[in-house]
UniProtKB/TrEMBL annotation:
Top enzyme class: oxidoreductase
Keyword Lyase: no
Keywords for the protein's UniProt record, in alphabetical order: NAD, Oxidoreductase
Organism expressing this protein natively: Stylonychia lemnae
GO cellular component term of the entry, any: mitochondrion
The protein, known as: methylmalonate-semialdehyde dehydrogenase (CoA acylating)
Record's keyword annotation contains Oxidoreductase: yes
Domain Aldehyde dehydrogenase: 12-445
Record SUPFAM superfamilies: ALDH-like
MF (Gene Ontology): methylmalonate-semialdehyde dehydrogenase (acylating, NAD) activity
InterPro entries given in the database record: Ald_DH/histidinol_DH (IPR016161), Ald_DH_C (IPR016163), Ald_DH_CS_CYS (IPR016160), Ald_DH_N (IPR016162), Aldehyde_DH_dom (IPR015590), MeMal-semiAld_DH (IPR010061)
Length: 467
């Protein structure tokens, strides 16, 4: 396998711990060539034969060790599910559609496929991609984020140790030039992407323009509705965990709390509990770890700074946090902003940091209408004890991944990750049955076997009707 072992920087101290190379065009083309050649043999392999990582994630990304272990575990779930793809990849058949004519279809691999990964889940997202693609008979070109490239190399080393042949999965490194190469290379048939809007739109439009399938999961602004009848303790804990976990750097974070009616009386308690969260380096399993880069820290603090200027109320300000011993770290503390409305920067933009935005609503319908008017549709949640309210919510809401009395409703691998609206470009979603559709194409055969006593088929120039 072609792997380029990168080296990276540490968020808590700004010390340089490694450098990530930019793959040259020659190296990139070599990876694609190897994948193309290996595909010829890999496609014929039957489907049925096909806490070092967490520590590397904590070092490169900065997230807490326990969160990094969750990152790895959710990826492994998809790997385990890939072992059951013999049933999901089955074809279809219909006998005797006409006299002596049978019709059957089966799924075949596409060829060389590729994945472009984000920084926030260095293990989970790659494991959403290549295990399913190669299980279905494709070869793969994987580009990890240049910010956290080391974890992917460990995964590929483990893949090699497991007996997967060289050339089935190939790692390329770098930034925008590598992305463009993936979008335009003639041998690549399909591209998976998870990341921000700008990159996602570019990859979708450029890849599609070059005849490739693209599944592009992009930005999000996930809302949770809090009804007055909700379990108070459970709801507050869930909101805080879903908002500030992973330092808010996840596309399924609940970053907007839409608090309805009398539940607004809980806001002071939400603030006080949030204030008690601990801040420190990921190696210490603190509640809030550093952000990925110095630029991310500056962007989050700048957005917090716009809140009161635009009419919101800053109840908890996490700017200017300094952690002893890690004074140069990319730390932003937990922040809570109340009386937010659409049109404010902290509402309209995906902050991707430890910031809870609170919008007040008078009724359930007002809350639903607010969420549906947002351009994103990745995930949403509601907290209530009323079954009718929950059913109305799940029926009317336009976001496509819904939690009822739980936040961050990321589906298990046997389902698909089904982000929608402005959060997704493409047709087939990640993992589950969506991955089978994305990484394969149908081959359909119509076969006629006439008996010796049958008359010869008469010549005809019209379109056959199977009669």
């Amino acid at each position: 396998m072609i792997t380029i072992h990168p080296l990276i920087s540490y968020q808590a101290t700004q010390e340089l711990i490694a450098k990530v190379p930019q793959s040259t065009d020659a190296e990139f083309n070599e990876a694609c060539d190897v994948a193309s050649q290996t595909y010829k043999t890999w496609r014929e392999v039957p489907i049925s034969t096909r806490d070092r990582i967490a520590e590397a994630i904590t070092l490169e990304h900065g997230k807490s060790l326990i969160d990094a272990k969750g990152d790895v575990f959710r990826g492994y779930e998809v790997v385990e599910h890939a072992a059951s793809f013999t049933s999901l990849a089955q074809g279809e058949s219909l006998e005797n559609v006409a006299r002596g004519v049978d019709l059957y279809s089966y799924r075949v691999p596409l060829g060389v496929t590729a994945g472009i990964c984000p920084f926030n889940f260095p293990a989970m997202v790659p494991l959403w991609m290549y295990p399913l693609a190669i299980t279905l008979g494709n070869t793969y070109v994987l580009k990890p984020s240049e910010k956290v490239a080391g974890a992917a190399n460990i995964l590929i080393d483990l893949l090699k140790e497991s007996g997967v042949p060289d050339g089935v999965v190939n790692v390329v490194q770098g930034g925008a030039p590598t992305v463009t190469n993936i979008c335009t290379h003639k041998d690549i048939r399909a591209i998976s992407f998870v990341g921000g809007d700008k990159a996602g739109e570019y990859i979708y439009t450029t890849g599609s323009a070059h005849g490739k399938r693209v599944q592009s999961n992009m930005g999000a602004k996930n809302h949770a509705i809090v009804m007055p009848d909700a379990d108070k303790e459970d709801t507050i804990n869930a909101l805080i965990g879903a908002c500030f976990g992973s330092t808010g750097q996840r596309c399924m974070a609940i970053s907007v709390a839409v608090i309805v009616g009398d539940a607004q009386q809980w806001i002071p308690e939400i603030v006080e509990r949030s204030r008690k969260l601990t801040i420190g380096p990921g190696s210490g399993n603190y509640d809030i770890a550093p952000l990925i880069t110095k630029e991310s820290k500056q962007r989050v603090e700048n957005l917090i700074g716009t809140a009161e200027k635009q009419g919101a109320k800053l109840l908890l300000d996490g700017r200017g946090v300094v952690v002893k011993g890690y004074e140069k770290g990319n730390f932003v503390g937990q922040s809570v902003i109340d009386h937010v409305s659409p049109g404010m920067s902290v509402y309209d933009e995906e902050i991707f940091g430890p910031v809870m935005v609170i919008v007040r609503a008078n009724t359930l319908q007002e809350a639903i209408d607010l969420i549906n008017s947002n351009k994103y549709g990745n995930g949403t949640a509601i907290f209530t004890k009323n079954g009718h309210v929950a059913r109305k919510f799940q029926h009317e809401i336009e976001a496509t991944q819904i939690g009822i009395n739980l936040p961050i409703p990321v589906p298990l691998p046997m389902f698909s990750f089904t982000g929608g609206k402005g959060s997704f470009r493409g047709v087939s979603n990640f993992y589950g049955k969506g991955a089978v559709s994305f990484y394969t194409q149908w081959k359909t055969i119509t076969a006629r076997w006439k008996e010796e006593t049958d008359e010869a088929q008469k010549m005809q120039t019209h379109f056959p009707t199977m009669k």
